[in-house]
UniProtKB/TrEMBL annotation, chains A, B, C, D:
This is TetR/AcrR family transcriptional regulator. It comes from the Bacteria. Keywords: DNA-binding, Transcription, Transcription regulation. It comes from Asprobacillus argus. The keyword Plastid does not apply.
Length: 187, 187, 187, 187
DNA sequence: GATGAATGAGAGTTCATTCAT
DNA sequence: TATGAATGAACTCTCATTCAT
């Protein structure tokens, strides 16, 4: 395995564990034994557990953005492309891999002082808002830019609420509910 | 101090620490040193750390429900009483004690297997939905019962989203945004 | 309940726990909750856990001597009365309450320095040897006093081995085997 | 020090403490400070205290079997080789390291539920019975196989009784007594 | 005489990280 | 570069005993 392949392998292994068991509840030992590497090898690729956390967040977000954009693009232009974010979420929720939002999960586990992770998470959320703003811009051209921005934030709020609550209640009604509400404001 | 006073004292101390530092990052040692009691004293009052966690959640929720009901009741009957949940949240957010939702924070830190805490949290969220349903029922009597229930869930989603996102972004725009969206659907 | 009745109640409760769970593995809390008394009440009757241990040993030994003498006395005079110690043991072993020898069990759990308990146990064992010496003296009068003493000690050894090994192997072959060997030396 | 050397070092240190102070009365802290290693180092070599206990029992038994076989083999073939088990015991008793039987001592300290340790101990005892059966088979060839097995079990009982009682009474008369009785049944 | 709340000391175990090889 | 052994600090929890009431 090449150097970067090992790193990828570590990130994937750690991501699965962090996402499903939680950051603090996943030990370094678990990561290395799952990844089948030596402890020092892990520390050759990452300075600390926190660095792996950062890589985990980026890995998750990157895959997420790719997928959600894909799903939206697959729909016919117009309102449907906007509502597609909830179609994506519905599928995401039904996937056995679903365990809520990695950002929310992670931020809850870290001390307030940890600015490094916190700002990464804020950036990720901003990138989602940006995507939604573009999506609204492209598909609801009749609204003013200001209104588009306002709508994007509201959809973002609905999306975030739906992720968290479908996870918490283990039920997809929050997604349905958010979708309906979204539909009513973009018509 | 009487038995129950000590217990209350422990709950308050632990609650502050759990809420602000996180459950896993708060050690028993920190709780006892902050509370000024011996370790065994704590364990005379609580069987385990998890039991303290449960008491913490209940303490938080109880205070929360009291306060939000108070704020809503203080407004003039009608739409205002419904929107008041966001007034409450605005004040909550501005309080220096604000650190997001204790339920969301806590559930992120616990293993999936922990059904005891998870179901407490689900119950708390359901009690909020129930409150919102009553609130809508009393203040928006023109809607059908079914529509009232749907509205309550949507407001719940907006509220939850606003809590999480104002916390995450350290900014109150999500509250304002949720309030506006709420306003638009109840008019 | 009278003072001495409470004491008896504590001894019986503690004895059951000590005998079945072991001395160190039985906590004071377990004793009081099982006995239904307050912690300080226990300490009003016993200076320390060690004192309860002493009372436990004496309680066990006293009941044991009474019973074994009873069983032996119930047999027709002669060899049968001697072999009856193994009849007693057989019945003891089959009792669901059987958990080996309290003396051996207890001495294994205590530091060498604890002379108080150790000498109590040695006394108990000597009282058993004395009983066996009497038993042999009364039932095997053809042997010399010296031979009787030697026989008594050998029977004691066989008895002790049979108790320990039937307990360890959870099987009564050691009792049968000891009985046979005993039979062969007293004929 | 190599990995296995450290492990051996831990086993030896723990064995000495377990055997002389008892399993429950020996803390992990005592083992590590005596062994001069860090706590986590110990837990890198052993999963739990119970695992160290198992290694202790095996270490003791292995040394015991080696030694007793050696002593028996050193005698001239015949009755003497059988009686040699008590010669071994006599020497064992006189050794300042003598503290009774590790199996009996340990089993007394453990909860009934601990099948892992209990079965190890039963195995060890069975291996002793097997050795005695071989010994009798080789040195008392005139007896039938059945009689040999019966004899072996009786000698086992005598041996076990002698170990426990010499330890309890801190006197070697039980060994002498057992030896004589053994002598009388194999002639 | 009876209570139950409080305690200091210590239990076994796990953690992320480092370092010599 | 890759390793695995070693670590100090922290973890949750339990113990027998005491003391004010």
């Amino acid at each position: 395995m090449k150097h970067s392949e090992i790193k990828d392998h570590i990130i994937k292994t750690a991501s699965h564990l962090f996402y499903h068991k939680g950051y603090n509840l996943t030990g370094i030992n678990e990561i290395i034994s799952e990844a089948g590497i030596a402890k020092a090898t892990l520390y050759n690729h990452f300075k600390s557990k926190e660095d792996i956390c950062l890589a985990y967040l980026q890995y998750k977000n990157s895959a997420f953005l790719t997928k959600i954009k894909e799903v939206c693009a697959s729909k016919k232009k117009g309102i449907g492309q906007v509502l597609a974010v909830f179609d994506f979420l519905e599928a995401f929720f039904k996937d056995k891999d679903f365990n809520g939002c990695w950002c929310i999960n992670t931020i809850s586990e870290l001390p307030k002082e940890n600015q490094r992770i916190r700002s990464e998470i804020q950036q990720q959320k901003n990138s989602l808002i940006n995507f939604l703003t573009e999506l609204v811009g492209q598909n609801l051209p009749d609204h003013s830019t200001l209104e588009q921005q306002k709508l994007a934030k509201q959809i973002y709020l609905l999306y975030e609420g739906a992720v968290a609550e479908s996870h918490l209640h283990q039920n997809d009604w929050p997604i349905t509910s958010a979708r309906e509400l979204c539909n009513s404001i973009i018509n």
